[in-house]
Amino acid sequence: MNYFVQFSVVRLSILKGQFEGLEQFVQWNPNSAFYSLNLLGWTLFLGLSSFFIAPIFLKEKKGNLIKWLLILNGITCVLGTVAVVFEIMIYLAIYPLLMTVLITTASVLVGMVFRRRMFE
């Protein structure tokens, strides 16, 4: 929903030069509702989904590493939710880097698992 609003309403309003009230729809305005929705998705919901998917790959050769990367990502993301609520700015500055490294590494390993399964 957030990205659709950005690509449609925000983009079209900017193209038409209609800026009044637009600040509540821009996702990188820390005082907008869409900033909160964006962070909710990337912190709480990505964190929870990481926890739920972590045990699925335990039977795989790289399963234990994938599990721990996803658990660490879940912890990192949920702490991001806490950092947003309590305005812990230092964590919010490093959170994107931690989350990106963890989820990217886990995703590459999962891709390798799926690729290997294709050829079995």
Structural descriptors:
elongated, mainly alpha, single chain, 120 residues
Q: Which structural class best describes the helix and strand composition?
A: mainly alpha
Number of domains: 1
Report the mean per-residue pLDDT as an integer: 92
**Helicity level:** over 70%
The largest pleated sheet is described as:
none
Sheet-strand content, in percent, reads under 5%
Q: Which parts are unreliable, with pLDDT below 50 for 5 consecutive residues or more? A: none
Helix-strand string:
HHHH
- Tell me the number of strands: 0
Q: How large is the radius of gyration? A: 18 Å
Tertiary shape = elongated
Number of helices: 4
How far apart are the first and last residues' alpha carbons, in Å?
Answer: 39 Å
Give a verbal description of the structure:
- The structure is a single chain.
- The chain has 120 residues and is mostly helical.
- It has one domain.
- It has 4 helices and no strands.
- Helix 3 (63-85) packs antiparallel against helix 4.
- The longest helix is centred in the last third of the chain and has 30 residues, at 89-118.
- The protein starts with a helix and ends with a helix.
- The mean pLDDT is 92.
What's this, in brief?
The chain is an all-alpha fold and 120 residues long.
Layout of helices and strands, plus pairs?
Elements: H1 2-16, H2 33-53, H3 63-85, H4 89-118
Helix pairs in contact: 2-3, 3-4
